[in-house]
Amino acid sequence: MNPAPLVALVGNPNAGKSALFNALTGARQKVGNYPGVTVERKSGRLSLPDGRPIELIDLPGAYSLEPASPDEAVTRDVVLGRQDGERQPDVILVVMDATNLDNHLRFALQLIALGIPIVVALNMIDMAKRDGLEIDVPALSRALGVPVIATVAEYQAPRLSFHGDAGIVADLLARAGQRIEQGALAGIGVADQRHQRRDVHCPTNLEVTNLAGERGNMDGAGHGTAQRDRHPADPARDRSLAERRAVQDLDADALVEAELAQPPRLGDAQRRPIDRRDGRALPLGEGFEAGEHLHRRGHIHPASDYQ
Amino acid sequence: MLRLDQLPVRRPARIAAIDWERLPVAQARRMRELGFDEGVGIETLHHGPIRRDPIALRIGRMTVAIRRAQAEAIQVVEAAAAE
Q1: Mean pLDDT over residues A270-287, rounded?
Q2: Residue A228 is nearest to which of B26, B37, B82, comparing CB atoms?
Q3: In terms of CA atoms, which chain B residue is nearest residue A65?
Q4: Which residues of A make CB contacts under 8 Å with B?
Q5: Long-range CB contacts (< 8 A, 24+ apart) of B43-51?
Q6: How many beta-carbon pairs under 8 angstroms link A with B?
Q7: Could you report the predicted ipTM of this complex, rounded to two decimals?
Q8: Most buried of A8, A70, B23, B51 (most Cβ within 10 A)?
Q9: Residues of A with CB below 8 A from B40's CB?
Q10: pLDDT per residue over A111-168, tens digit each?
């Protein structure tokens, strides 16, 4: 019997990976260790309404694929399929904090550049909305070239809830090479679990603005520092909501546009060799596509403390 | 324009320049990952008790503590002065 598709939660620290993990798996969790390192391995099971299981693992938070700690090294190695005691995940679920997109996109882009199957969970979308950020999820998804689903994973004792599109699981499975029948997932998460109850609803109340329409004041060229210069000095307190919205849009937009002119397609992982020494994908064809920009701007350095 | 380590507490500023060459590669990389970059809004929140080191900063939406020596590589412009 084939093992259940393996889905790994990856993202920056405090993006909400564990909250999402808890909300998706409820009480069905196992905690162990990766062999040889004191890094916790958390895995859980997720059952679809038709009974098919998915194994979900919660990886340590990381800022990039170049580790600065043993935890980050485990995250990198699992993602690249070379961690002892773990098979390569079928899907990476990248968790991003919607209120901290300009920072979290950096790592997400690095992961997307690997060409492995990815679904993005845009977490804390409720907080973003509260802060006046309106994120055009379909546009972000198109720009990144991967499915993006807005989620809210919150802990409200004694009950965990996962508000998100049921499509997230459908996308996960589809990318894990599983066939999904239309409507088979309509009720995912609504069924009560033994210990926790999960609610799922689509964030239809989310006001979505057309990001493409709102960026008229920015040319495609000169995004880099010009766009950075638009950062007001005190985003947390002094900025008006409108300004904050504009800045967030510009950040996400400029980053994505500049770095993902050609989003990697599913299946690239098989064709693109991975450099076993530093874990980065080797150039395919004309270069390191999506990650190249990050390298050029110095966001990614080849050197690393943990190899 | 002043160095980040000289920026008074609670005075919103913006990073004007970072002398990456001064920083060890691993530190520079981590600081970039944390969002340090030219043009980014920054604000000093606290200074440590001994030689005012380390320095707690708000950068983007995060609070980050860095060493005084690292802050010395960063030039900032106060937001009030920039307007």
Answers
A1: 44
A2: B37
A3: B33
A4: 63-64, 66, 68, 99-100, 102-103, 106-107, 225, 227-236, 238, 298-301, 303-305
A5: B43/A233, B43/A234, B43/B10, B43/B11, B43/B12, B43/B13, B44/B4, B44/B7, B44/B8, B44/B9, B44/B10, B44/B11, B45/B9, B45/B10, B46/B9, B47/B9
A6: 70
A7: 0.75
A8: A8
A9: 228, 231
A10: 999 988 898 988 888 888 888 888 888 899 889 988 888 888 765 443 445 555 555 6
